[in-house]
Amino acid sequence: MLRYILKRLALLPLILLAVSLVVFGILRLGEGDPAMSYLRMSNIPPTDQALAVARAELGLDRPLHVQYLDWLGRAVRGDFGRSYVTKNPVLDEILYYLPNTLILAAASLLLTLVLSVPLGMVAALKKDQLPDHLTRGLSFFGVSMPNFWFGFLLVWLFSIKLGWLPPMGKGGPAYMVMPVLTMSLMSLGINTRLIRANMLDNMHSRYVLYARARGLPESVVVGRHVLVNSLIPVITAVGMHVGELFGGAVIAESIFAWPGVGRYAVSAIYNRDYPIMQCFILIMTTIFVTMNLVVDICYAWLDPRIRYEGGGQ
Amino acid sequence: MTPNGLKRYLRRGLVAFSIVAVLILTLSALCAPFLTAHDPTEIALADKFAEPSRAHPLGCDHLGRDVLSRLLYGARTSLGAVAIIAGVILLFGFAVGATAGYAGGAFDSTLMRICDVFLTFPTFILAMFMIGVLGTGIVNVILAVSLTHWAWYARIIRSLVLALKNRKHVLAARVSGTGRFMTMVRHVLPPVFAQLAILATLDIGHMMMHVSGLSFLGWASDRRPRNGAS
Question: Which residues on chain A are in Cβ contact (under 8 Å) with B121?
Answer without folding.
Answer: 19, 22, 243, 281, 285, 288
